[in-house]
Design goal:
By secondary structure, the protein is α/β, with parallel strands linked by helices. The chain contains 20 helices and 16 strands. Bound molecules: pyridoxal-5'-phosphate (PLP). Pyridoxal-5'-phosphate binds next to helix 11.
């Protein structure tokens, strides 16, 4: 299997190189040059780990099977609260797929507990002697998951930039208290798009890259622009399907729908890749918050950045520049290079009709902040089930989809974070009378109210020592990187 840039098919690399580089030298993203087909029957009964091995080995063809196996067993071990890695909750005719039982309580752990192993093995294979500097822009969850994954991994440094005013107190505390000799965390006065754009710029700054190479450093990325993030995310869509078969909720071969709360389009793209490999998915329900640029795109074929950025109660989805859409455009054979240039120059692009038609298995919808809170409340009252704000966005958009289409296809909703990361808004939803002065005290309040077990990673978080207090302006991101590497 080779990987090629979305912007230039002549740039082809191995899986190891794609993972190490993070982004192609022309600013494009690496995509697999084909989608291997897989027989569902052959996967029945596999554990999560063994399923991950079967899928990853089809993509990581320059890794040995032993390398893949050992990486996967180390990634998905007792760090995950549940042995099966993913948990499910059935509500009416859908399953909530809980992807947040890893160390940092968000679905980012699903890929980021594996990526460091893949990256260090790839570096060894390629004979790379330099230290890997893993640059990471985060809307709240990627940062912590990358920090945990790369903490004290030899030959790596991990550098995270988060929007200082745009994430929950608990998300922030998780990052600024991060231990590890090789971890660096900075708040920026700006939003996720600012952070991601600055990081992407560093990747294509040949002068800076050459200078740092002489100093013994090489950049890589922990963001979902790295194909090493996407491949492990394909696995759980297969897992959720096989689970539904096992529980007799569907018959082998039946189509399902998936609902994904979406920001950078990585998670939902992994579902699309699963379909390309043979998983029967009928509709991809792409759920957005009030930053609903993707809803508009799916409905009209025009991607238009000319709008205001909003900080919402589902901050990990506060994104306007959705990177992985570029991979999707490549998949439907749109003119990626032209669209990306138009986006840069005019702030928008429009798909040709014949390309837009290919998007007919996508449904786009969004939930307002109020609808999100009402959904948490309704779900708790009706099903005694507590969901976080991001999952609630998905559940609300799913409700709208059902009302509009009357589609009764069995559905899997991706649940992307623990309610304990967003205690303020979850409590506000289920009991508006509670005083909301301290997100950390609300951890106990949420437990007392709902009986939901307090996950280990948030216990004692309030008292942890702050090790990374710095907040910088968005224009000094490049400078900061040079300074810490000097
Ligand atoms: C990152 C994240 C999302 C968005 O996922 P994408 O792959 O960027 O679309 C949704 N919910 C939570 C909780 C997240 O951390």
């Amino acid at each position: 299997m080779k990987y090629k840039s979305t912007r230039n098919p002549e740039i082809t690399v191995s899986a190891s190189e794609a993972i190490l580089q993070g982004i192609a030298p022309d600013g494009g993203l690496y995509v697999p040059d084909n989608f291997p087909q897989i027989k569902l029957e052959d996967l029945m009964g596999l554990s999560y780990q063994d399923l991950a091995i079967e899928i990853c080995k089809l993509y990581l063809t320059d890794f040995t099977e032993t390398e893949i196996k050992s990486s996967i067993y180390k990634a998905y071990d007792e760090k995950f609260k549940t042995e099966e890695v993913v948990k499910y909750k059935t509500i009416q005719r859908y399953n909530v797929m809980e992807l947040y039982h890893g160390k940092t309580l968000a679905f980012k752990d699903m890929a980021l507990s594996l990526l460091p192993y893949l990256m260090t093995k790839a570096a060894k294979r390629m004979g790379i002697k330099e230290e890997l500097v893993v640059l990471t822009a985060t809307s709240g969850d990627t940062g912590k998951a990358a920090l945990e994954g790369f903490q004290d991994v030899p030959q790596t440094k991990v550098v995270v930039f988060y929007p200082s005013e745009g994430i929950s107190d608990i998300q922030k505390q998780q990052m600024i208290t991060q231990a590890g000799e090789n971890t660096y965390v900075f708040g920026i006065k700006g939003n996720f798009d600012d952070a991601q754009s600055a990081v992407k710029e560093v990747f294509t700054d040949e002068v800076l890259k050459a200078r740092l190479l002489r100093m013994g450093y090489r950049f890589s990325s922990a963001n979902s622009i790295n194909i090493g993030r996407l491949i492990p995310q394909i696995v759980y869509y297969f897992h959720s399907y096989l689970y539904a078969v096992k529980c007799n909720q569907i018959q082998m071969g039946d189509a399902i729908n998936v609902v994904v709360p979406t920001g950078n389009f990585g998670n939902i793209l992994a579902a699309k890749y699963a379909k390309a490999m043979g998983l029967p998915i009928k509709t991809f329900i792409c759920a957005s918050n009030e930053n609903h640029i993707l809803t508009d795109f799916i409905q009209t074929g025009t991607y238009d950045l000319n709008r205001n950025f909003k900080v919402t109660n589902s901050p990990s989805m506060d994104i306007l520049i959705s990177s992985n859409l570029e991979r999707y455009l490549h998949y439907v054979q749109a003119n990626v290079k032209k669209h990306m240039t138009d986006l840069k120059v005019f702030g928008s692009y429009t798909l040709k009709d014949e390309i837009f038609k290919k998007m007919d298995d996508f449904y786009g919808g969004y939930a307002t902040e109020k609808e999100t809170l009402d959904m948490i409340d309704a779900c708790y009252k009706e099903n005694a089930y507590v969901m976080d704000t991001h999952t609630a966005v998905a559940a609300k958009v799913f409700e709208k989809y059902q009302e509009e289409t009357k589609d009764s296809t069995f559905t899997v909703i991706a649940s992307t974070a623990s309610p304990y990361k967003f205690t303020r808004d979850v409590i506000k939803a289920i009991d508006p009378k509670v005083l909301l002065d301290d997100d950390f005290e609300l951890i106990q309040v949420l437990h007392d109210k709902t009986g939901l077990e307090i996950p280990r990673p948030v216990q004692g978080l309030a008292e942890a020592e702050v090790l990374h207090p710095h907040v910088i302006s968005k224009i000094s991101i490049k400078n900061t990187i040079e300074t810490i590497l000097r």
